């Protein structure tokens, strides 16, 4: 049995011959959406009167120009009708043409070719509103509103910008002008003051989210590198007289306090940053970094230690800090110079702490009240620090080096405000009055020096009896 095969007539090639372009255009028009096929220039990546890209290795036929008005699904996609120049663009997008070389009339048939056809670079920029920042930056803006937004007066803000100008200023580029120093500093201050997400910062200042993030990191790094050595320093004059007027205890040059800043779970050494006290308070696993500071009688920081793990006790943080080594070598000055700490710190030759046992005598009870008065300067300073810069109250997610710069920047800004006489707003004052003390640790540390214990008893006796020696009755 034989089989006969009918000769197969090959079909004409879709891409050969003069009709290939027409078939190709028909295929594209069939595959594309009706509105986009009718108005190809509505697609933002191609300008007016441009030919569609060659998907199959050769140039396709030019598509018809867009109509004067667009209806239907085109408007639903956010496109606006064509303008006088025949172009169409999204509502929230602006096209900026730069670097377009001139075209001679001989090559353009007597008319200048559009910039899009000349091969110039087109930069797409999203238009954002800067009304909020323009209103605050205007000199006519009330100073109370400016202080509420940035936690300082306009004069203090201008002085801060002058200090950071060399480290924060950027140069203009060919694509856009640099963001001014005042706006960059304002972005960082508002972010630190409110703790709002970067999306809200972007909306307020009319900048991109990533731009705001980079500005905050750069300004915080500049505050830590440039102003931290100047703003946080040991006082040139001994503040013992100020503390003595406050508490009656002679020789006190500073008050020590340790607080914790909540953070998210770090990638490395998670157990070291686990904070048991915060976990019990929040009823969920909490992590933190410790911030230890010495505060003078005016409420300004004179020494800070930032970034130790939150699982350490206050005594362990003190032992690992540079302050401990400095005090052990006698860098406080005279032997009569001392620091004041809470019950969580050890009693040493250079630190006075309150009595922690029960059944206190009259002298010991009076001594504890005087210590509490001196230690209140440090507690109040940390309350104002976290009240001004609310980013320290919320759990932060940045990397630990960036977090250290952020906390250091807040300490610098705190000293800037305290030494400039900047007062807190009434609403922040009311919030601080309702906050409980987050840094008190119930466990008391043992006495590390017998001589220090005797000296504390002597000071307690002198405070009760006015410096008169005790009389022993036989």
Automatic annotation (TrEMBL):
<keyword id="KW-0539">Nucleus</keyword>
<comment type="similarity">
    <text>Belongs to the HARBI1 family.</text>
</comment>
<dbReference type="GO" id="GO:0046872">
    <property type="term" value="F:metal ion binding"/>
</dbReference>
<keyword id="KW-0540">Nuclease</keyword>
<dbReference type="InterPro" id="IPR027806">
    <property type="entry name" value="HARBI1_dom"/>
</dbReference>
<keyword id="KW-0479">Metal-binding</keyword>
<dbReference type="GO" id="GO:0016787">
    <property type="term" value="F:hydrolase activity"/>
</dbReference>
<protein>
    <recommendedName>
        <fullName>DDE Tnp4 domain-containing protein</fullName>
    </recommendedName>
</protein>
<dbReference type="Pfam" id="PF13359">
    <property type="entry name" value="DDE_Tnp_4"/>
</dbReference>
<feature type="domain" description="DDE Tnp4">
    <location>
        <begin position="260"/>
        <end position="415"/>
    </location>
</feature>
<dbReference type="GO" id="GO:0005634">
    <property type="term" value="C:nucleus"/>
</dbReference>
<keyword id="KW-0378">Hydrolase</keyword>
<dbReference type="InterPro" id="IPR045249">
    <property type="entry name" value="HARBI1-like"/>
</dbReference>
<dbReference type="GO" id="GO:0004518">
    <property type="term" value="F:nuclease activity"/>
</dbReference>
<feature type="region of interest" description="Disordered">
    <location>
        <begin position="63"/>
        <end position="122"/>
    </location>
</feature>
């Amino acid at each position: 049995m034989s089989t006969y095969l009918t000769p197969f007539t090959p079909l004409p090639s879709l891409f050969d011959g003069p009709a290939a372009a027409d078939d190709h255009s028909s295929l594209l028009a069939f595959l594309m959406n009706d509105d986009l096929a009718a108005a190809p220039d509505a697609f933002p990546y191609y300008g007016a009167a441009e030919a569609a890209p060659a998907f199959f290795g050769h140039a396709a036929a030019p598509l018809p120009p867009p109509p004067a008005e667009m209806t239907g699904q085109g408007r639903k996609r956010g496109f606006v009708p064509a303008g006088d120049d025949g172009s169409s663009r999204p509502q929230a997008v602006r096209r900026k043409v730069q670097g377009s070389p001139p075209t001679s009339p001989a090559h353009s048939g007597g008319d200048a070719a559009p910039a899009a056809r000349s091969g110039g670079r087109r930069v797409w920029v999203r238009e954002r509103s800067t009304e909020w920042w323009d209103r605050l930056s205007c000199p006519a803006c009330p100073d109370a509103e400016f202080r509420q937004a940035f936690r300082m007066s306009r004069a203090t803000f201008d002085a801060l910008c002058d200090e950071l100008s060399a480290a924060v200023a950027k140069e203009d580029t060919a694509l856009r002008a640099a963001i001014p120093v005042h706006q960059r500093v304002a972005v960082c201050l508002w972010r630190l003051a409110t703790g709002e997400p970067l999306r809200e910062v972007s909306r307020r200042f009319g900048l991109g989210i990533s731009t705001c993030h980079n500005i905050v990191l750069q300004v915080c790094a500049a505050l830590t590198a440039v102003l931290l050595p100047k703003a946080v320093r040991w006082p040139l004059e001994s503040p013992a007289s100020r503390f003595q007027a406050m508490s009656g205890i002679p020789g006190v040059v500073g008050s020590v306090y340790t607080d914790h800043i909540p953070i998210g779970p770090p990638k490395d050494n998670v157990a070291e940053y686990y904070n048991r006290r915060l976990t019990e308070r929040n009823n969920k696993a909490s992590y933190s970094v410790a911030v230890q500071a010495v505060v003078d009688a005016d409420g300004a920081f004179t020494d800070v230690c930032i970034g130790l793990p939150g699982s350490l006790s206050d005594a362990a943080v003190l032992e690992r800090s540079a302050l401990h080594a400095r005090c052990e070598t006698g860098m406080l000055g005279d032997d009569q110079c001392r620091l004041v700490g809470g019950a969580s710190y050890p009693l040493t030759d250079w630190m006075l702490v309150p009595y922690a046992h029960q059944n206190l005598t009259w002298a010991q009870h009076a001594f504890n009240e005087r210590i509490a008065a001196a230690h209140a300067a440090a507690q109040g300073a940390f309350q104002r620090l976290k009240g001004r810069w609310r980013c320290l109250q919320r759990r932060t997610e940045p990397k630990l080096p960036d977090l250290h710069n952020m906390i250091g920047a807040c300490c610098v800004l705190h000293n800037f405000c305290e030494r400039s006489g900047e007062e807190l707003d009434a609403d922040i004052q009311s919030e601080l009055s309702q906050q409980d003390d987050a840094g008190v640790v119930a466990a008391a540390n043992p006495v590390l020096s017998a001589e220090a214990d005797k000296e504390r008893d002597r000071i307690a006796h002198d405070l009760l009896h006015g410096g008169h020696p005790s009389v022993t009755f036989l």
